[in-house]
């Protein structure tokens, strides 16, 4: 290529120079086209692979890189099909005494770019790229501006031209394709009325004095107030009103951020952020307000996480993630800002999903905004349902534990009020929502059906217990395992002392056993140990065939023993008859082992105190 000094020696030299430049630009365009094609081919398939391994950040970057390369390649191929832009005649009008210096033709003057004086030492202006990833693929190249009509060309060496639309170099004006300005996403901004803005500033001042701006929730509330102060500042400044009150409140918020939140970055307090529409600050304030219940829900989740099922965890975290992503996208798109608090919440949500072996779809960058908006509206319902289900389950577990503790008491079943205590515990289980067929409830009460007789609200539970007993009888599993007396083993010293204390009150007495079937071996051992003259053990059905049969048997006895574990009905009626006749009642809540029987007699049989 010829030296720059030869460009203006004549029309022929300049035409030769321009032909060389055009060839150079075509070669550059072709090289760039091939490079972009190789980039698109190399990236193809990588975004899908990144999504497979759940590396969403790399996948998003690859998608952006491929989209930017495809867009630029489309522009280059379109220009190649259309050909270079049309040019005006090369020779300007010759100078004359009438018209002064040479001027460009009228057609060229109407479309030529305005004259701009460019200093040879001015720093190069980097080209605008559609994606921040493209500069990593090619170095920035200096842009050059044509001098325009009437200016002499600068004798600078020729530099590589940026791969955008080629710009002819020289004093010749060219036709430039006009680009329509971007359509604003909102109508033209109109400041609010000054009285309304001043009233809002006064309200925000009062809210700052009453609000607790400490902790994570306090930081969110601080950001809400700061966003509305920024909008108020823009509205007041636009009408020329005083903004001193707004600045004072902003200084207070900055001091609070330093003292209470370790000087954490707060986007609305950054004066370098200037969105296209000041009303965007109100949208951001509402997005921060939406994070307040989301943060409350996440804190509740953190406290009860180990009590929740996986489906409940995902049901609750999805709307929380939707609100976090909605706020993140608004900050990124409208303000090009960051938020450390939201970044930390995003990482915690991501880790929770990873620990539970699922990925929150609302955290996926490819999730549409409409889906995020829909999911974010489900937060209140999801929290209410998950919290209600957990509270109900904990109440059921607590009621069952109380029932099991009651039955585990060593002396339970021997007290006069034990039946009422068991009825209350069983009724509490049913009221808490424990199903009547739940094995933990039904099986625990199999041996205590007599205590639940005629209790209000327990009819359905008694029916289930009866069905289970019938089922066990059919399967041959009925009967209760009891601790047998070991042959040749005597009574312990403690039990022997109890037996000696009972003999004056049992020797020669007649005892009546009610409940279950007669077990002769147990009856004989107890009779001999306590020296009863007789122990009657009739069939329970025989006692309830007539209203007077039970009363007659009780009247002939000195002591009545209720075998609670073997009784299904009649306990309440028997206790009432014994009370009317003044006959002492002994309850055997467990087995018929001799040692246990002596202990039950010793603890329940009324005996006069010594000396009376």
Secondary structural class: mainly alpha
Mean pLDDT reading: 77
Strand order of the largest sheet: 2-1-3-4
Assign an overall shape: elongated
The helix count comes to 21
From the alpha-carbon coordinates, what is the Rg to the nearest angstrom?
46 Å
The proportion of strand residues reads under 5%
Which key terms come to mind for this protein?
612 residues, 4 domains, 21 helices, 54% helix
Can you tell me about this structure?
The protein has 612 residues and is mainly α. It folds into four domains: 1-85 and 126-139, no CATH class; 200-377, no CATH class; 386-474, no CATH class; 493-604, Rossmann fold (3-Layer(aba) Sandwich), CATH 3.40.50.1370. The protein contains 21 helices and four strands. The chain has helices at 11-43, 46-52, 56-82, 106-111, 194-210, 215-238, 244-260, 280-304, 310-335, 340-355, 369-376, 379-407, 418-431, 439-442, 459-474, 493-506, 520-530, 540-543, 547-555, 571-581, 594-604; strands spanning 510-514, 534-536, 559-563, 585-588. Strands 2-1-3-4 form a four-stranded parallel β-sheet, sandwiched between helices. Helix 20 (571-581) links the parallel strand 3 and strand 4 (585-588). Helix 8 runs antiparallel to helix 9 (310-335). The longest helix is centred in the N-terminal third of the chain and has 33 residues, at 11-43. The chain is elongated, with a radius of gyration of 46 Å. Mean pLDDT is 77; it is low at 85-186 and 478-484.
